[in-house]
Amino acid sequence: MSKYFSSKYVSLTPYTPGEQPKEKKYIKLNTNENPYPPCEDVIKKVSEYASSLNLYSDPETTKLVKEICSLYNIDEDEVIFTNGSDEILNFAFMAFCGKEVSAAFPSITYGFYKVFAFLNQVSYQEIPLNKDFSINVNDYIGINKTIFIANPNAPTGLCLKKEDIERILSSNPNNVVIIDEAYIDFAKEESSISLIKKYPNLLVTQTFSKSRSLAGGRLGFGIGNKELIKDLKTIKYSTNPYNINTLTLIAGVATLQNEKYTKANIKKIIDERERVSFELERLGFEVLPSQANFIFAKSSLISGKELYLKLKEKGVLIRHFDQKEISDYNRITIGTKEDNIILLSTIKEILKEVTI
Ligand SMILES: *Cc1c(COP(=O)(O)O)cnc(C)c1O
Questions:
Q1: CA-to-CA distance for 154 and 331, rounded, in angstroms?
Q2: What residues does 319 pair with on adjacent strands?
Q3: According to the model, what pLDDT value does residue 125 have?
Q4: Once rounded to an integer, what is the mean pLDDT over residues 111-134?
Q5: Distance separating alpha carbons of residues 333 and 157, to the nearest angstrom
Q6: Could you tell me which of 256, 214, 223, 210 has the C-alpha nearest to residue 88?
Q7: Distance 19 CA to ligand 1 centre (A)
Q8: CA of 67 to the centre of ligand 1 (A)
Q9: Would you say the CB of residue 206 lies under 6 angstroms from ligand 1?
Q10: Is residue 169 in contact with ligand 1, taking CB distance under 6 Å?
Q11: 329 near 314, Cβ under 8 Å?
């Protein structure tokens, strides 16, 4: 740290992203990326638009707004696009939390919420999960805090039902409730987008990073009541009006114009999620019932950390969290069928090694 670093950030601990190793080719099941590349149309359009990079990108993201409005049947002033959904989550902390309004989120959830709270000097309450890792909705009733809930939650993969979300929304009318739907496209439960007309305090965030194969493009969005969206735009235009670059914008448009491709990939991933869960259970793992593109599992034969390290040694990367309550578990992203076959056979090999 330099002597110039602002004192307000001296104890800021940044988010630790999953490894993106360059030294070796791994089967990469550690950051919940989509194993399938963007569709052909995206690749074609991005190269076409590269020649206009001398111009600023469209701050209003007009083409993207049009596509998303027809897909989700919302109005143009009910959506904002951001540089990944991480950016809109940060904007939400900036816009809807402060000295008087603190934040609340589950004690086991997306690690970035805590970082954004600290970054924005917002105090926060971490609400413990039930023993089975589910969210106890009663803990969120009328708490007068800005609430952040990942639904499905990460890294558990568990999902709340719409009625539960409505109970949280209706009991906290004076606070914004942010439902982070990074993984909703893989879930049986329906998106909360349909609730925005009924609850002016609801902000739904989604991302192109998981179901839409654009993690490297950095594209996310928020949908909510137009007044909330206006507030978020005030933040956007006060930080970076050009937060969506031209190539990402056009990649997003082409992606939305090829929903069939996205849907087909989602189906493949869900089918594989069910198969991998079943196979791991046969190997004695306890697997949480996931509604996301990853599973959260533990074995009684090997610790979470050891399994992670041994898999890494053998060329398969998964995610292990040191947090005490979940350190027995690993989060495994669902890859292609070929990836998953290697994952399972490597796990079998490791279990054999530790049990002889
Ligand atoms: C991946 C993820 C995000 C953010 O993804 P972006 O790549 O920034 O869009 C947000 N919330 C959760 C729960 C995630 O897992």
A1: 9
A2: 331
A3: 98
A4: 97
A5: 11
A6: 223
A7: 15
A8: 21
A9: no
A10: no
A11: no
Mutate to test the pocket of ligand 1, among 88, 156, 181, 207 (most ligand atoms within 8 A of CB): 207
135, 148, 149, 209: which to mutate for ligand 1, most atoms within 8 A of CB? 209
Per residue in 182-226, pLDDT (tens digit) is 999 999 999 999 999 999 999 999 999 999 999 999 999 999 999
Q: Which two tokens stand for residue 308?
A: 């992670």
| Predicted confidence (pLDDT) per residue in 312-330, tens digit | 999 999 999 999 999 999 9
Query: How many angstroms separate the Cα of 36 from the Cα of each of 39, 110, 144?
Result: 9, 23, 42
Give the position, in ligand 1's atom list, of the atom nearest the Cα of 86.
8
pLDDT given for residue 179 in this prediction? 98
b/e per residue 75-94 (b: at least 16 CB within 10 A): eeebbbbbbbbbbbbbbbbb
| Residue 164: pLDDT over 90 | yes
Residue nearest to atom 14 of ligand 1 (CA): 182
Task: For residue 221, report the distance from its CA to the centre of ligand 1, in Å.
Answer: 11
* 135 touches 162 (CB < 8 A): no
The length of the chain in residues reads 356
- Residue given tokens 């940060």 in the structure block: 90
Specify the pTM: 0.97
Cα-Cα end-to-end distance for the chain: 48
